[in-house]
Design brief:
Layout lengths: L5 E9 L5 H10 L9 E3 L6 E6 L2 E10 L14 E7 L3 H16 L2 H4 L1 E7 L11 H10 L3 E4 L8 H18 L1
Parallel strand pairs: 1-4, 1-5, 5-6, 6-7
Antiparallel strand pairs: 2-3, 3-4
This protein binds guanosine-5'-diphosphate.
The site of guanosine-5'-diphosphate has 15 residues, from helix 1.
Family: Belongs to the small GTPase superfamily. RGK family.
Length: 174
């Protein structure tokens, strides 16, 4: 089954500790998206999730690492990059700035979905990166922007749907 379902690769890029693996775990355990259809987990691949959006099902396969692999071939680039930092860690924001600059050098920004994500907004009193700074960075690269909290599950389903929406938009523009 799933033969007519398109599969997209999503790379989650961010410094150590920003919450990449926690986020993928949360994606996997999502069983309902408000206002959208159902999500289904695939038992055979723990890093993959099926998302139903606008009556069409797609599979998202996640990989995560702390930086964009230099040896990554241009033709093997993932369909989407989730550029993740922690709002309580200024260094992680700097890492995201650096990695976005590298993506730009590869000319990947035009052809791929890019979403800048600030995580850990539940830690209000420790915040070190403002919402405005995050927005400005995303805007400079014409990327989508979202703030989330993986542990309190704030905006996580919205991010998952947002990733697929951006991928489909880019696909239409090709
Ligand atoms: P990774 O190195 O980017 O994969 O980060 P992890 O997923 O291992 O998360 C690092 C730590 O941050 C773990 O202790 C997580 O529980 C914690 N963490 C992840 N997301 C959040 C969040 O939204 N809020 C808080 N307070 N902690 C988080």
């Amino acid at each position: 089954h799933h033969s007519d379902v398109r599969t997209y690769r999503v790379a989650i890029i961010g410094a150590h500790g920003v919450g990449k693996s926690a986020m993928v775990g949360q994606f996997m355990s999502s069983d309902c998206i408000n206002a959208y259809d159902r999500i289904r987990n695939d038992d055979t691949d723990p890093e993959s999730v099926f998302v139903m959006l606008n009556g069409e099902e797609s599979e998202l396969v996640f990989t995560y690492c702390s930086n964009i692999k230099v040896e990554m071939n241009r033709n093997e680039l993932p369909d989407a990059f989730v550029m993740m930092y922690s709002v309580i860690d200024k260094n992680s924001f700097k890492t995201t700035e650096d990695e976005l600059a590298r993506l730009q050098n590869w000319d990947a920004l035009r052809s791929r979905a890019i979403i800048v994500v600030g995580n850990k907004i539940d830690l209000v009193r420790s915040r070190a990166v403002s919402t405005q700074d995050g927005k400005c960075l995303a805007c400079a690269y014409r990327a989508k922007f979202m703030e989330v909290s993986v542990v309190i599950n704030h905006n996580v389903d919205e991010l998952l749907v947002g990733i697929l929406t951006q991928i489909r938009l880019k696909e239409e523009l090709q």
